[in-house]
Amino acid sequence: MSQNNQELKRTITADITPEKAEKKVLVAGHVHETRILGKIAFIVLRDFSGTVQLTAIKNQTPEETFNRIKQLTHETVIQATGTVKANPQAPRGIEILLESINILSKAEPLPITVTEKGIKIGLDKRLDYRCIDLRKPENKAIFIIQNAIVDGFIEWFKKNGFVRVFTPCIIGSSSESGADVFEIKYFDRKAYLRQDPQLHRQLTIAGGFEKIYDIGPSWRAELSHTTKHLCEHRSCAAEIAYIKDETDTMRVEEQLVISALKHVKKTCKEELELLNAKIKIPETPFPELRFPKIYEILKSLGKELPEGSDLDTESEKLLAEYVKKKYNTEFFFINRFPFATKPFYVMRVDDQPFYARSVDFYFGEIELSSGGQREHRYEKIMEQIRRKGMNPKRLEWFTKFFKWGVPPHGGFSIGIERFTEALLKLDNIR
């Protein structure tokens, strides 16, 4: 590398604009495409921020540089220097007239394509070569948008006085019924990967915090190999003290979702265009459907569910279509689930104890979150543990703190991967 090149600092492709015309720059990235047309050669260079065209012209570009282009394979990593030129015919109206190329890492023939459009590659093969697959601009765009979703969540939490907490991933007992957990060896005893740190968030409220949020991984040992399930997933959860009832948590969740949608729409214009995705900011409040009325709605749609049963996939699809037709939105809540279908810690409706103040939030037919109002009264918690046939001793680490005064509280947990899948209308959560 020449002394002049060493003095140049790397410029990312997104920062190469017509305003930089006639300036010398150093760029680096993957060779996305090459074309040699007689006395002129083109390289499309790709870095994380985008692409830029590098142009070499015989008798103007050093001969060594021009000949080196012929050696470049797709995805080879190079560093190049040249002068920025305005060119209305070039992508983005600019190009770099090449002076030098330095090959940093030569790529062998690729197992899957990164550049060719219209070629269908099976998901299993894509996952086998995940790092290569992520180089496709369309796939990278998904993760940039997912990052923006989380940024939108965090931005709202900060503006509204929430404190971020970091709950444990290894727990001493399963957080719900004990099913669907990954058991691990913790020195000389059993431990588990958390399904959801729900109980720990509640204990944070018991510790005097009033508005908290938590972003992190959870695990479920489910054999469900569907387009909506992951054994390991990330979620964004909130817990709020001194709520009136579960509807307070719904109003918070609405605002949080709106914040994320607005942030994505504002910061990810190129990525949304690349994926042909459009974001419409929904009106609030989101529609709310309640049990047992839901059984009547489903019956009118040709689906009969026994009272007390949970929703199946067909029911979720029918309700999503019903909401879309009646309210012209894809966002809606389902409230007052039968207590028998929910965990011990949810609060039952006092005058309808068959039903719980338990809320699921949907984006189309995809369930994004579960939440609602938690039971904060010690005697009720113990009664519900026994009703579920669980061992009170195993949950004493959690329940004992409710003897000493815990405010009414509730919250929810949104699946980040599911939110991304639903927002971008992806075929598979993976």
Structure in words:
The protein has 430 residues and is an alpha+beta fold. The chain has 2 domains: 3-105, OB fold (Dihydrolipoamide Acetyltransferase, E2P); 137-424, 2-Layer Sandwich (BirA Bifunctional Protein, domain 2). Helix content is 30%, strand content 28%. It has an 8-stranded mixed beta sheet with strand order 6-10-11-18-17-16-13-12, with helices on both faces. Strands 1-2-3-5-4 form a 5-stranded mixed beta barrel. A hairpin with a 2-residue loop joins strand 14 and strand 15. The chain starts with a helix and ends in a 6-residue tail after the last helix. The model has no long low-confidence stretch (mean pLDDT 93).
**How many separate structural domains?**
2
According to CATH, the homologous superfamily of the largest domain is: Bira Bifunctional Protein, Domain 2
Shape summary: elongated
The strand order across the widest sheet is 6-10-11-18-17-16-13-12
Q: CATH architecture of the largest domain, please? A: 2-Layer Sandwich
The whole-angstrom Rg is 27 Å
Structural class determined from secondary elements: alpha+beta
Give the beta-strand count: 18
Q: What share of residues is helical? A: 25-40%
CATH topology of the largest domain: BirA Bifunctional Protein, domain 2
Discrete helix count = 13
Straight-line N-to-C gap: 42 Å
Mean pLDDT across the residues is 93
Strand content: 25-35%
Largest sheet: 8 strands, mixed
Characterize the quaternary organization of these chains.
single chain
CATH class of the largest domain: Alpha Beta
> Spans of 5+ residues with little confidence (pLDDT < 50)?
none
